[in-house]
Amino acid sequence: MSLVSSAPYPRRAVPLARRSHRVPIAIGSTISLLAIAAVAYLLWPTWRAQPVGDPDRTPVSIGETLFNVPTKAFRVKFQRHSGPQERVDLAFLYPSLLPPERPKRASPQDVEEFHPIDRIFVSIAAHQDTLDPQMRLRTIYPRYLAPASQQIEDGLTLRPFVDGSPYGSEDLVTAEQPPLAARCTRDRQTPGMCISERRIDGADLSFRFPRQWLTQWRDVATAIDRLTAQLHAVRG
């Protein structure tokens, strides 16, 4: 008859070498976790949250050139997004240069009444290696200008384009201080409009405004400079 011993089995001793390896592994893991936490803290976004709705400005890249556009200034709804675009069309109230509020629904009375234009229209498009506006002003326009010029305002010179030329129904107005160059259609059944162009890196900016504003051309030239600086301002 065999006897079964009830004495417990002795516990196996953990080798000293294995225990000695666990200590540096634990220390290394703790250091790694602390390092990850420190990096995550440093890289955690610190920008201020925007209120619900569209942000104040939308960054767009046109011709690989960055512009910060006031979101409310977009005239075309599908252009109202950040990232690369070929062209954007904008509008700014004059003289405040603020983006206009959303238009309210017009009544029949509003349609019948004449409302003068109260804003500057701005288009930004990739130039795609076309001739620089300043080079066009110096080399192309003079071929089609009439020889006579006239001072229409203090410091502002007007020269008409000859009939039959590509710009036959327009005049060229220029000034030096502050600098301004614009092609303007003539007043006919509809009021004349002026367009002033300039280039920034890979994009051309076109500013359109009523011809009647030439009576305050210095203010208009300053407004164009201000809009250019605001749109191209890259905020860190």
Task: Give structural attributes.
three-stranded mixed beta sheet, disordered N terminus, eight-stranded antiparallel beta sheet, 236 residues, 11 strands, alpha+beta
Structure, described:
With 236 residues, the chain is of the alpha+beta class. Helices cover 24% and strands 29% of the residues. It contains four helices and eleven strands; from the N terminus they run H-E-E-E-E-H-E-H-E-E-E-E-E-E-H. It has helices at 16-43, 108-112, 133-139, 217-232; strands at residues 57-62, 65-70, 83-84, 87-93, 119-126, 150-153, 156-160, 170-176, 179-185, 193-200, 203-210. Strands 4-5-11-10-9-8-7-6 form an eight-stranded antiparallel sheet. The protein has a three-stranded mixed sheet with strand order 2-1-3. Strand 8 (170-176) and strand 9 (179-185) form a beta hairpin. The protein is elongated. Residues 1-5 and 45-52 have low confidence and may be disordered.
Major pleated sheet: 8 strands, antiparallel
**Strand fraction band?**
25-35%
Strand order across the largest sheet: 4-5-11-10-9-8-7-6
Note the overall shape.
elongated
Helix content: 10-25%
Distance between the termini: 91 Å
| Mean of pLDDT | 83
Order of SSEs = HEEEEHEHEEEEEEH
Rg of Cα set: 34 Å
What's the β-strand tally? 11
Count of runs of 4 or more consecutive helical residues: 4
Structural class, judged by helices and strands? alpha+beta
